[in-house]
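Before the break, one more example. Copy the sequence into your notebook; we will annotate it together after we see the structure.
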Amino acid sequence: MQNVNGSIGVNKKTLLTTSNLVKISMLAVIAYVLMLIHFPLPIFPGFLKIDLADVPALIGGFTLGPVAGMLIQLLKNILHLITKTSTGGVGELSNFIVGTAYVVPAALIYRYKKDKTHAIIGTLVGTVIMSFVGALSNIYLIIPFYSKIMPIENIIEMGTVVNSRIVDIRTLVIYGVTPFNIFKGLLIALITLLIYKKISPILKR
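Here is what the structure looks like once it is written out:
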């Protein structure tokens, strides 16, 4: 929108305000801390661990927009890469890819209409997209990278231990990685929907 002097007016709600950058940084740090608190579930291969680090990213995406959600995912993984990585960056890359595939679609749908229905639809769509992107990225990118750190046979064996149908990379993704991402997406959605209305007013100030 132009002002009376013919110059382009600045939208005060733009992402690149000091206030929003502080909020993004704060949420990224919280996400990083939550990323450190992780645990395996016996129904999934041991290298897949549950954490709640996507909750701050999803809250940020709902409140500040999809780009903010993506930036929170990026910053938390950079912090983890610098301080705690045990995979040479492969785990962080995977986390960023699937986390962004989850948060961005969910935030875009919620941005269209900010109500509970669209929040639920957004997280369900985000879960589906995350699962699809996670499957492709693991088959063609992440697992081949992991195989340079750990023999591919050992990776597959970690899946076979919990599910005898896992015998190769394809079945590892079908019976291990994809169910894990669906479970995690629904868990993150549930927690976010339970706490979002209590937290969002603080971020909107």
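The CA atoms of residues 81 and 89 lie 6 Å apart. Residues 18-203 form a domain with the Arp2/3 complex 21 kDa subunit ARPC3 fold (CATH 1.10.1760.20). Try to locate both features in your own notes.
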